[in-house]
Amino acid sequence: MKMSDSVTPTPNNDAVIRIVGARQNNLKNLDLTLRHGEFTVITGPSGSGKSSLVFGTLYAEGQRRYVETFSPYARQFLDRMDRPHVDRIEGVPPAIAIDQNCTIRTSRSTVGTMTELNDHIKLLFAHHASLFCPKCGREVTEHTPQTIWDNICERLQETVDGMDSRVYVTFTLSIPQSLPLETATAGLSAQGFTHIIETQSTPTGTLLTVASDRFKPSSVERVRAIEAIEQALDKGAGAMSVYLKTSEGFSRLAKYQKGFVCADCDLTFNHPTPSLFSFNSAVGACEHCKGFGRIITVDPDLIIPDPSKTLEEGVVKPWTTSAFHECEEELLHYAKQKGVSTTTPYEDLPEDAKKWIWDGDPEWRGHWKTQWYGIHRFFDWLETKAYKMHVRMLLSRYRSYTLCPTCHGSHLKQNALLWRYGTLKDRQTVFDLQTQTPFFKPLNTKVSDKHYLSLPGLNFHELASLSLERLLTFFKARQNQANDAERLILDEICCRLQYLCDVGLSYLTLDRQSRTLSGGEVQRVSLTTALGTALVNTLFVLDEPSIGLHPRDMHRVNQIMRRLTSAGNTLVVVEHDPQVMLAADRLIDLGPGAGVHGGQIVFDGSTRNVLKSKTLTASYLSGQRIITRRRPQTITPETPRLVIKNASEHNLKHIDVAFPMGALTVVAGVSGSGKSTLIADILVPALERRLGKSTQVPGKFESLEGALPHDILFVDQSPIGRTTRSNPVSYVGSFEGIRRLFAKTPVAQQLGFGYADFSFNQGKGRCPTCGGSGYEHVEMQFLSDVYLPCPTCQGKRYNSDALSVTIHLSDDRDYNIADVLELTAREALTLFRSYSHIALGLHYLCEVGLGYLKLGQPLTTLSGGERQRLKLASALSSGLGQMHYGQGKLFVFDEPTTGLHFSDTEDFVKILDTLVAQGHSVIVIEHNLDVISTADWIIELGPEGGEKGGAVVFEGTSDELIATPDSLTGQALAAWKKAQAGHHSRTTFFDLPKKSTTRGATQVKPQIEVLGAREHNLKNLSVNIPRNQFSVITGPSGSGKSTLAFDLIFAEGQRRYLESLNAYARSMVQPAPIPDVDSIRGIPPTVAIEQRTSRGGLRSTVGTMTELLHFLRLLFVKLGTQYCPDCHISARPLDHKQILKAIRRDYAGQTVTVLAPIIRRQKGIFRAELEAARNRGFSIARIDGRYVSLTPKIPSLARYNEHDIDLPLGMCDVNDESLERLVENALIHGHSRLLISAEQPVANTEPEATRHDDVMRFYSTLAACPSCLKSFPPLDPKLFSYNAKAGACPLCSGYGIITAALKKAQKEGEAFNTDLKDDENAQRCPACQGTRLNPIARTVYWENKSIADFGAMTIDEVMQFFDNLKLEGRDAIIAKDPVAEIRSRLAFLRSVGLGYLTLDRSAPTLSGGESQRIRLAAQLGSNLRGVCYVLDEPTIGLHPRDNSILLNAIEQLTHQGNTLIVVEHDEDTIRRADHIIDIGPGSGVHGGELVAQGSLQDILECERSLTGKFLKHPVIEKLTESFPFNPEHDPKISIINPKLHNLKGETIEIPLNRLTVVTGVSGSGKSTLTRDILFDNLANNLKAKDKHWVGCDEILYDPRIARVLEVDQTPIGSTPRSCPATYVGFFDKIRKLFAETTEGKARGYTISRFSFNTTGGRCEACAGQGMRTIEMSFLPDVKVPCEVCHGARFNPETLAVTWKDRTIGDILQMQIDDALEFFESMPSIRHPLQLLKDIGLGYLTLGQPSPTLSGGEAQRIKLVTELSKVKEDIGPRGKASPHTLYVLDEPTVGLHMADVAKLIKVLQRLVKAGNTVVVVEHNLDLIACADWLIDMGPEGGNQGGQLVAAGTPQSVAQTTSHTGKALKAHLEAH
């Protein structure tokens, strides 16, 4: 259909999502264009293809593409959707789904766990709650030396002498009897402990109370007192006491212990952790109920359902059966002996008689034959037989749930409830509106109720019992009192609570079980999670958000969805409710019918125009079709009623409710009003119990009276099974009858087939290849799995024998079982109408409108509405199939119209009408106004939800309801009828969008707004970054650029998307910490491509870095063919006779052990597999190469290690006949595989027994060489990985080369635990010839190529291969996804100019520019739209020519509707940006401000902008000095014939005493020449007698060169323990200064005392880091200043030592500029400080942690570290300085133009001092200031490696090389 023109076009025609050729499920090659920023509703009949379009196509692609931007490791924890069946989808943003599959039916799930509020509150309690002693009620604080001293001082205030008391700090020492007391006291005295306060004898020795120190508190220094306490705690094993000395002797003031201890009650408590407050953790869960809050026990009401019966009449129901009739006889026998009446009704028996019946003989001695055992012991005995299925079924009939007697429903251990959060005032504020404060006193609490009520705050369960509205009030009161870490959690809690209240869920409590929530409540909880993400440019897809919502509440959902679109998101909603449908900007109606009759667009336009259209949906919306009943019933006072008296469960207000029988009754009311409580929790279980059914305990009510039905059938909201083995005909119960028909045929009887054999889930009739599934499941690991028709049965599920059986049906045709399953329900009903037991289920399938479904259609392909109707059909067929219609059954439905279209609802109402007409009663919980209007009787609960609900608001007919002004349902029903009649009020009822609306993408400012950023050095920075444009953030190094881009924008964008995922996935992906910023608005999901300067290991290749190898491995596993490495013949299946022949040949004359491999190279604990083996009689197993006993207990395996497990079948001589039997059994257990060993299977008890892998030989019937009979393992991805033992060449361990370091690692058994980076003296591996793989992997072929062949191909060659690749059938389906991924990555690699690289090229041989572009290609190939890409200096390592290629590639991202934020200093990049943000004006504390933003011209005109100044006046204008070089006369270094890697061999000359720059395009050989040849050779040969040159013939150098130094790109320390002072090395000298002070010597401190990395002097609270990390579990960890040392890193005693009035902590907090002046008199310290200042790092502090340094700062610190080693080079000191050759690899990385100028000056100073500097560089400013240039090229890779030009910058600029052209343009421009 042509798109309607009525939808207002957006200004940006590209801001659309285009779906072309969608064929998912029943979609008919559908094309659709959706506009970004719009609210679109997809509607249509159930089964018309709505979910297939929205979820199966649109959401699947958006979610899949964004998940691909995560690492392969993270992706395995994220549920990636299958790739949809569609030609293409363009412009899809990252997607988040809110569907109907989020209902949880476990008692462990509560509102708190669903919303994850429990997780946040657990953190709050773990870090900020207070502990109160259960005995005395006092607060228990954690004792540290500081708090102990404070407590001592408090206690002293209450003594007579106060602070003038004589205090003794003591510890207790236990002296054993074997040690003389005199010896012990002498030893104590030698240590300085001369005062023994008390001596006490014990049975084991003597207890001494020893004084650590004594003093008067009024005059003692705090430091001394704390030292005494520390010493006492240390000597007393964490315990100590304080004594006061008076004239009467010693009296103890208090006893203390480290940790949480109540000194008065001597109770110790554990430190709180989040798991202590989790009922899903063994740490916190109540041990009795395991955290469920209730236990399952035998229910007396089910065992004795009718207490009016006597013992003789069979009052004990389970004993009335024939199986246990003897128990009833024994009861009567012993009752007569006991004198208990057997003819008196049970309810009239005395209590002691009842107790005897239940508990048995009071003198019970275990004599079952001679004593009465009682009902309880009978069921205890049954529990011991519960392993039998029939016993479990019996027990289930008499069990029910009761409140846990230990935790009383709190779920937690009682110690967890001793912790309280908040103040007394906070609690009183919450309960102002309530007359009595509810409290939950832990059972182990001894304090009075009055005292307990006076305690501050609330415990965890009390908080969980509050309504969300009250909870929000409580936490908001806490926000203003909280510190930063606490406020972080509170903000998150309050935000989530506010959203829950906004959607009308304020009445819920956190401990409300999820299974008790209505469908609408569950849906709205999920919706608030989406709202909480606060993302933009995101696609939100919702599945009927109106489910369970009262019409009054619809506007709440509409407001939320409009809020999402107004924020700049796209919203696509599947919906049937008119109030939501017409509130959208656009409506798309699918149809015209369902199933094969749907899948087309029948209307696409504005929601106003749909009312005028002619579609089925429009006819209901416009009132042309109205849902009515044919046979409504009239309710009179005489109508029989079922009455519930005094219902009071949950929020019900002791109500009496009467339900008319023989009528259709609807229970209505707003969400949370008590409908489900009344019906599902009280009425249904109460009736079921009355009818003798096993069920849960009914909710609180008084009685059930009136007209009781004969039976009850309850259809709730629980989802039906969604497996491919379940289908409609099975679900409605008709399939068994069909199978019995087939089993009765003569052919079936001749084949010996019973009815069970015609099941595809079991029996001998199903296809053996697919197991009856009809398809082949191909697992694709990190890609979507592939399902193919079974090659044997072609999808028919059955074998040929079963398919040969046919039945003759009414159309005079023969059908086999597969033919029957292909029939539609309507066709089958016609054919099977004469078989009533089959036709009943088929009849109801057609009645609910599912006649078009095929009988065998998998339930996984059904829509939500189809599944709902199928459930109704099943309920009706089962409910009506076993009874006569006149008996009066009660049908109860809980929101049955969920997922139903108007037409489906009309069909359902007809069914209800028929049920009532047949004499049944129907009760429906419903919000659907059409169903309500057709009801005979309506009961409305309310008036509101939660505490304000639970009352009966109305009882009567629909007409009376409309006339009731106070009824919210009546108001909605009246408005709906007016809307159908065309009344003008329908605009309000339908919530139609305004005609002039500009909501959507056109209304939102397309920008990211950062307000009040204070992270790191940012100074309350606010900035607006335009979306969908190319923005550059620049400024001096260390000014805060990366902080803004990565720590704020990227971290927040990714964190918000991850919040939509489950907590498990978030814990694996590790979101970044929440930044210190007021707000970030308008942020889309983000993708970061950060700068990495480290080189990968030798096992890292182009193939692994780009993930191309991962996809190739997958193709080889699924489509490859194994060949024999020796015979070069393809492997084929063999029978066990050939295996036997091979074994006897290989082990001639030996005794062998036959083993079955059950686990091969898999991670896990495999307890179930080992237990199953033990149950089958295996006493030992071979686990990871050693034999281990399986008895008496199963061995524990490391979960995250790979394991091999083999079961030994037996031993025999190789020629023994028993070998054949052992081989057959091994092939069965090992799934066609076996192992043969020559060693004896004896269990080894040693934990580290030696492995014997070399004696094992593998055999398989699946794949073996038909010539030599060698067997091969199943193809596995690890076989093709050289990072795994399974695939790596055994000689080189997957490196492809042999080095000394590798040999050492192999010798130590660590070859696979190390990542070698050094290929010094490497030789190609002779075994694999550098391919890295073992022979088996190298001889697997696909399309006539091995995976090693692909490794040797260039990217261009691989692309050509896949362009020419043509696959068909099964291969094409399997290869579709991997090939698409490969082509995408190859295309981007070629677009950035890397087509010349081979896939097996190792990472260390790549240039910096090549590595950078590979990383970009791996990340940017996902083809997303609407995301924000954040790049960190992508031009690092790129030549100006390559820079242009890269910028062209990444600029395309903005053209696709993405936002591009690049942190960059490169002039070309800055000039090409759409928007520039300049951060400064300086670095560090002098930066962090917004200096300028806007266009290039705006930056140039800003006087404060350092960037602007250098863009106008570049470096080369200021640094023009150079030293000319004459190659014929001047000294030089000559590299003769360099031929390493791609170098082509010629003489290259480097002048001495000059600044030489080696440049050239990326991959041209610069780093190979300078680092691998020049530096490595001179470093190794400079002082060597025997020169050994690698990579060249020789290097001729001037003998004056005394040393060689390299400054490369390896990062400096990445932990807070590393800082500039420690890295450069002058901190040791500073520490020595402090150790040599008078105070330091007096205290006996050495230099180690002043180290924050070792114990002794550092602050132990923060381990010397100055910051403390608060672990936040699934939330990002929070770093806060240490509250003990306040960031000083050292303890008070260390800080007491000063030098020039500064402590060691003060020194670390000094800036380098200040420290330079402070240490002016100390040359050894001043010199490196001066270098740091000269190179532009004067703003850093000496102790600044390395992780906070930018890339540019880290590089310059490394350079200073090298320069500081040769201080004589800077300013001669009267002697000739040694000549040094400096080799620098791109030192301008991360440097601003101003910093480049400083760097050039430093390099020129080195040259002036008589040194030689060789720099690999692309920066044109540095190139222009060089004395000499060496230009490599002309291209990269194989086309490079030549000397293109050499000379001065001016001479090179005249050449036509890429460098020459760029340099010429640069010089001319400046």
Please, could you describe this protein's structure?
This protein is an alpha+beta fold. Helices cover 33% and strands 19% of the residues. The chain has 67 helices and 69 strands. Helix 41 packs across helix 43 (1218-1229). The longest helix has 23 residues, at 1369-1391. The two termini are 60 Å apart. The relative contact order is 0.06. Residues 1-13, 882-886, 997-1004, 1245-1254, 1672-1676 and 1767-1774 have low confidence and may be disordered.
Quick structural overview:
By secondary structure, the protein is an alpha+beta fold. The chain has 67 helices and 69 strands.
| Main sheet record | 6 strands, mixed
Oligomer: single chain
Distance between the amino and carboxyl termini:
60 Å
Q: Which shape, going by the Cα principal axes?
A: globular
Alpha plus pi helix count = 67
Task: Give short descriptive properties of this protein.
1870 residues; alpha+beta; six-stranded mixed sheet; 67 helices; disordered N terminus
Tell me the layout of helices and strands.
Blueprint: E1 16-22, E2 30-35, E3 39-43, H1 50-67, H2 72-75, E4 86-90, E5 95-98, H3 111-114, H4 117-128, E6 130-132, E7 139-140, E8 142-143, H5 145-156, E9 166-176, H6 181-190, E10 196-202, E11 205-215, H7 222-235, E12 239-246, E13 249-257, E14 259-262, E15 267-269, E16 294-298, H8 300-303, H9 325-338, H10 351-359, H11 374-383, H12 389-397, E17 399-403, E18 419-421, H13 424-430, H14 449-453, E19 458-459, H15 460-464, H16 468-479, H17 484-502, H18 519-532, E20 539-543, H19 554-566, E21 570-574, H20 578-581, E22 586-591, E23 600-605, H21 607-610, H22 616-621, E24 641-647, E25 655-660, E26 664-669, H23 675-690, E27 703-706, E28 711-715, H24 728-731, H25 735-743, H26 746-751, E29 775-778, E30 786-789, H27 800-803, E31 806-808, E32 814-816, H28 817-821, H29 825-831, H30 836-847, H31 864-880, E33 889-894, H32 902-917, E34 921-925, H33 929-933, E35 937-942, E36 951-956, H34 958-962, H35 968-980, H36 986-989, E37 1007-1013, E38 1021-1026, E39 1030-1034, H37 1041-1058, H38 1063-1069, E40 1077-1081, E41 1086-1089, H39 1102-1105, ...
Parallel strand pairs: 3-21, 3-22, 5-20, 20-21, 26-34, 26-35, 28-33, 33-34, 39-54, 39-55, 41-53, 53-54, 59-67, 59-68, 61-66, 66-67
Antiparallel strand pairs: 1-2, 1-4, 6-7, 6-18, 8-14, 9-11, 9-12, 10-11, 12-13, 14-15, 16-17, 18-19, 22-23, 24-25, 24-27, 29-30, 31-32, 35-36, 37-38, 37-40, 42-51, 43-46, 43-47, 44-45, 44-46, 47-48, 49-50, 51-52, 55-56, 57-58, 57-60, 62-63, 64-65, 68-69
Helix pairs in contact: 4-17, 5-7, 10-11, 13-16, 16-17, 17-18, 29-30, 30-31, 40-48, 41-43, 47-48, 48-49, 61-62
